[in-house]
Amino acid sequence: MPLQFPSVSGAGALGPIAAPTPAQHAAPASGPGDTEFGSLVLDGLDRLEGLTDKADGLAVQAATGKLENIHDYTIAASEASVASQLTVSLRNRAVEAFNEIMRMQV
């Protein structure tokens, strides 16, 4: 069952998150779970890039006066900001977990 995240704009920007097939992202697999995790990370980064690209495009339209509804840009910028903060937070947690594992006595 894919995870559902609420969307700020109601357009389903984050939408359901499901593991892509291994053919979508070719990654070297060390074990059965490695390919799925790597694919999820790549998919998340692709979604983040899409959100920031959308916000950047709307920012250009707003600056040139071609954007009729400025709230569309505000919503897209907020979505991109929250997604970036979440990505940085997850990265920091992963680094902390890796460092903790490296400090373990063997």
TrEMBL record:
Molecular-function annotations in GO: cytoskeletal motor activity; structural molecule activity
Region of interest: Disordered: 14-38
InterPro entries for this protein: FliE
Location within or outside the cell: Bacterial flagellum basal body
BP term (GO), one: bacterial-type flagellum-dependent cell motility
Entry keyword Protein biosynthesis: no
Gene Ontology CC entries for this record: bacterial-type flagellum basal body
Keywords: Bacterial flagellum, Cell projection, Cilium, Flagellum
Pfam families membership: FliE (PF02049)
Low complexity bias (residue ranges): 16-29
Keyword Magnesium: no
Family affiliation: Belongs to the FliE family.
The protein's name in its UniProt record: Flagellar hook-basal body complex protein FliE
